[in-house]
Design goal:
Blueprint lengths: L1 H7 L10 H23 L3 H27 L5 H20 L8 H22 L6 H22 L5 H17 L20 H28 L5 H22 L2 H11 L3 H17 L1 H13 L7 H26 L4 H12 L9 H23 L12
């Protein structure tokens, strides 16, 4: 069985993301759109909590699939079937997400359990006798642990919030701690967790690009369905500029050096997990930003509401928090302009009550522009900074 298992493994000389993985990412454009739509219908603290739980659940699916294709050959027919099945399951979960805490809880929970446990269990069986199987045993164990409160919550409306939050919280915490598993211990520095830094770095970049694609899609669809007045045209300019600035700040230095940083880390697994969580924060910022784009284009000069200010400023703030975490994973430090920018957005939010939505949206665009310009000025005439991962 070991020789058969070896045929499933990804070859080290092929670290680039496969076309299958890019195809898989397409479903997350719809996923982010569905989460944003659900939050927009319930723009409250409870709605934000529900959206966070669902985002974490779907992010865990993306993480598990990226881990699977990092170890297994995406050109192998079995691996392709597993990824396509997961893609279909993600589509179903995303469709159920806006009403997952209402009448579609069983569809969401049942599909999550099948999508997570099914592929992991099959891989454990196919790799039995091979060293790499232990990595998937850890993953399978924590999927099963998370499945218990998830399925119980699907059958009760009363405690669903707490049970589902516990489910995703347990698995997220386990991942951060190296998937500690009975008789196997933690995954850090284990030979079965040999990872490809180049492949994972590319996958993380692709996930963030998917998020930016969602912003472009929302901008275009909202604008095309409205009157082309001067206020809406200005709102589109601000929305596009903000999206471009998010890309520019992301890719500056750290965004292009992640693969090198993971390879240079004393513990590549821990470094990749840190980078993974930083991207979770940045992508989480896309969801409120998508709602903000829709609101500002539809009502550029309307009366602003506190919840509108929260999504307009909250998205870029989450991005800056994640980008600072990302920078720390690569360089072992955080640029002051990221911290100052996030503080300005939070501290200035009360004053936004006196501005129309369009001008509120201009504020984070100006903060991001200042950060992007200061990045360029600081880097001018200096040799490229080398990665210095602290992990």
């Amino acid at each position: 069985m070991t020789s058969g298992a070896a045929a499933l493994l990804r070859r080290p000389e092929e670290p680039r993301a496969a076309f299958l993985e890019l195809f898989f990412d397409l479903v997350f454009v719809f996923t982010l759109a569905a989460l944003a739509a659900g939050l927009a219908r319930n723009l409250s603290w409870r709605g934000a909590f529900h959206t966070l739980v669902l985002l974490l659940a779907l992010w865990l699916v993306w993480t598990a699939t990226s881990g699977l294709t990092d170890r297994l050959d995406p050109q192998h027919p079995v691996v392709q079937l597993l990824v396509l099945a997961t893609m279909f399951g993600t589509l179903v979960m995303a469709a159920a997400a806006p009403k997952a805490f209402d009448g579609r809880g069983f569809f969401f929970a049942g599909t999550w359990i099948a999508t997570q446990i099914g592929p992991a269990l099959l891989v454990v069986v196919l790799l039995r006798g091979h060293e790499a199987s232990r990595a998937f045993v850890r993953v399978l164990f924590w999927h099963c642990v998370a499945a218990v409160p998830l399925i119980v919550g699907a059958f009760t409306h009363v405690a669903r919030d707490v049970l589902w939050a516990s489910a995703v919280g347990l698995e997220c915490a386990a991942l951060a701690l190296g998937l500690p598993t009975p008789r196997l211990g933690r995954a850090y520095m284990r030979p079965e967790f040999a990872i490809s830094g180049e492949h994972l770095a590319e996958r993380y970049r692709q996930l963030f690009i998917v998020g930016l694609g969602e912003l472009i899609l929302v901008t275009g669809l909202t604008f095309s369905g409205s009157e082309f007045g001067s206020g809406r045209i200005a709102a589109v300019v601000v929305a596009f500029a903000t999206t471009a600035l998010l890309w520019r700040i992301y890719i500056h230095r750290a965004g292009s050096l992640l693969a090198v940083a993971i390879g240079a880390a004393s513990d590549p697994v821990r470094a990749s997990i840190w980078a993974l969580y930083s991207h979770l924060l940045m992508v989480a910022g896309i969801v409120p930003s998508a709602i903000a784009v829709e609101l500002v284009i539809a009502h550029p000069f309307g009366d602003v509401q506190p919840a509108w200010i929260a999504v307009i400023l909250g998205g870029p703030t989450l991005f800056l928090a994640g980008r600072g975490m990302f920078e720390y994973a690569v360089f072992g430090r955080v640029s002051r302009n990221r911290v100052i920018g996030a503080i300005l957005l939070v501290a200035g939010s009360p004053a936004m009550m006196f501005l129309p939505p369009l001008l509120v949206a201009v504020v984070p665009a100006l903060v991001l522009a200042w950060i992007a310009v200061s990045d360029g000025v600081r880097a001018r005439g200096r040799p490229p900074e080398l990665p210095a991962p602290p992990l």
